Amino acid sequence: MTAGCGRPSVVAGPAALLDSQPGLTVVGQASTGEEAVQLTRKIAPDVVLMDIRMPVLNGLAATRRILSAPVVPGARPVRVVVLTTYDLDEYVYEALRAGASGFLLKHAPPEELLLGVRAAADGGALLSPQVTRRLVAEFAARRPAARRPPPELARLTPREREVLDLVVCGRSNTEIAGALVVSQSTVKTHLGHILDKLGLRDRVQAVVFGYENGLVEPGAG
Q1: Tens digits of per-residue pLDDT, 81-113?
Q2: Does residue 81 contact residue 126 with C-beta atoms inside 8 Å?
């Protein structure tokens, strides 16, 4: 699995860590957001670690441009994981809305960085229930709830809606399986159907979708 990184001054440590792991290779580092976009298009890494505060083109705009590019048929889509501080930077919320597969704290422990990169590469997302729920709830609270349920919800079965509501509340697959008395593989199957029917990229976008459309109250657990 290959990874591209943001500013060298920020990701020098993470880049060295990733390169030291079996199955992981850092294939490039960019100095600006614009360079990150161009480099991603050129080398098509599996995962991009994007610093939210990039010069020339900020990480939010770069993330949007990277993820809005059409995917080559048969190729794996590029995943973006955002690097940020723990000050609830509003750009992080916008990056999740743009399609980023979660975010990592710049000073996160090595195991969390590796978990996030591998999760994104596998088509999942790093979704820390405590940090992500707090982040999304904080900024979703500033947006008016939808006046009526989005029509896409009608495509979901009653059980899929149950799974979606629990995902939005930050529950893990293990917790959802326990709550609904089903296997984890069944939860994964339901989640896959939910993402397909709602046109969402991953679990993080499902959480954003839920908060934006008023499926749960901000701060609900």
Answers
A1: 887 775 555 666 777 777 888 777 777 777 777
A2: yes
CB 1 within 8 A of CB 23: yes
Residue 88 in contact with residue 138, Cβ under 8 Å?
yes
Q: Both tokens of residue 154?
A: 């009608």
pLDDT range class, residue 193, cuts 50, 70, 90: very high
- Pairing state between β 79-84 and 47-51: parallel
Residues composing the chain: 221
